[in-house]
Amino acid sequence: MFGAYIALTKPRIIELLLITTIPTMVLAQQGWPPARLVIITLIGGTLAAGGANAVNMYVDRDIDALMERTQGRPLVTGIIEPRNALIFAVALQIAAFAVLWAGANLLSAVLAFSAAAFYVGIYTLWLKRTSKQNIVIGGAAGAVPVLVGWAAVQDSLGWEPVVLFVAMFLWTPPHFWALAVKYADDYNAADVPMLPAVAPMADVVKQMVVYTVLLVVSTLVLWPVASLGLIYGIAALVLGAVFIWGSVALGKNPTAAASMRLFGYSITYVTLLFGAMTIDVFVEHGIS
User: Fold this and answer.
1) What are phi and psi of 276, to 5 degrees?
2) End-to-end alpha carbon distance in the chain
3) Over its length of 288 residues, how does the chain's per-residue pLDDT go in tens digits?
4) Rounded distance, CA 87 to CA 66, Å?
5) N or C: which end of the chain has fewer CB within 10 A?
6) Rounded to whole angstroms, how far apart are CA atoms 32 and 156?
7) How far is it, in rounded angstroms, from Cα 239 to Cα 225?
8) Residue 87 belongs to domain spanning
9) Cβ atoms 266, 178 nearer than 8 A
10) How many domains is the chain partitioned into structurally?
11) Torsion of CA 50, 52, 54, 58, to 10 degrees
12) How far is it, in rounded angstroms, from Cα 145 to Cα 44?
């Protein structure tokens, strides 16, 4: 039963969100932030994202039952009652707000709660089932952790976290559409208008390339805005070029296997890019 509740939070998605949070905190601090603050921020962010994901599963339990990829989720199998899942989700949100407010600051708590509210209210309840641009707009929620990480350190926002937010916002469509290419039949079965399920593959790839190019541009804008060095700049250029090439290559070989390779690379891309940003901060400031 414990494992089922953990599954409600979609831990793999949370892990990806946290990958962007710690490097952003390092950038905001210009070094390692206090360990206590990092732990508090990670706990608060995990609780907030987990609560939002649990509400998403509560709302989507009907269409999850129709899609092969999601038929093993705990609300579909019946191992958890819907009412209990909703109570669990609300409790996580309350705990997240309290942890961030008490351990970091009110701004970070409000930002985390706003991301959860946007994910549930705008994406899950409205756009997911009604618009082929669902993940484009709804994906903004997944870009908020960089704002939370920065706010936890600085108790304010600035151009650096805004540019990072834009980068993650632009990263989400090509990342998710790469996955959706493989599961287009699932989305069709559930009548969810995810772009790869309702548009020709050529149009999907064209939009993926556009978003990827804009993503790479935004990461290069961060270079001077955040006063980063060559380590970050070279990484942004090389990693971005590979991402663009992969998106173009998918158009030439639009198979499920190729889309999943691009999906896997999109995760590697974020991990390495934010890792390079972290290393760059340490090198530029001589931190060992």
Assistant:
1) -65, -35
2) 43
3) 777 888 888 888 777 777 899 999 999 999 999 999 999 999 999 999 999 999 999 998 999 888 888 888 998 888 999 999 999 999 999 999 999 999 999 999 999 999 999 999 999 889 889 998 899 888 899 899 999 999 999 999 999 999 999 999 999 999 999 999 999 888 988 899 999 999 999 999 999 999 999 999 999 999 999 999 999 999 999 999 999 999 999 999 889 899 999 999 999 999 999 999 999 999 977 654
4) 24
5) C
6) 18
7) 19
8) 2-284
9) yes
10) 1
11) 180
12) 11
Identify whether the C-beta of residue 241 lies closer than 8 Å to the C-beta of residue 265.
no
Contacts of 56 (CB under 8 A, 6+ apart): 10, 119, 120, 124
Cα separation, 195 vs 132, in Å, equals 5
What CATH number does residue 158 fall under? 1.10.600
**The residue type at 77:** T
Q: What is the DSSP string of 95-120?
A: HHHHHHHHHT-HHHHHHHHHHHHHII
Place of tokens 């950038």: 27
Closest CA to 82 of 175, 8, 13: 8
Q: Measuring CA to CA, how many Å separate 43 from each of 47, 104, 134?
A: 6, 11, 28
Listed in sequence order, the residues at least 6 apart from 280 whose beta carbon sits closer than 8 Å to its beta carbon are: 228, 229, 230, 231, 232
- Contacts of residue 54, defined as CB under 8 A and 6 or more positions apart, other chains included, come to 8, 9, 85, 86, 88, 89, 92
pTM over 0.90: yes
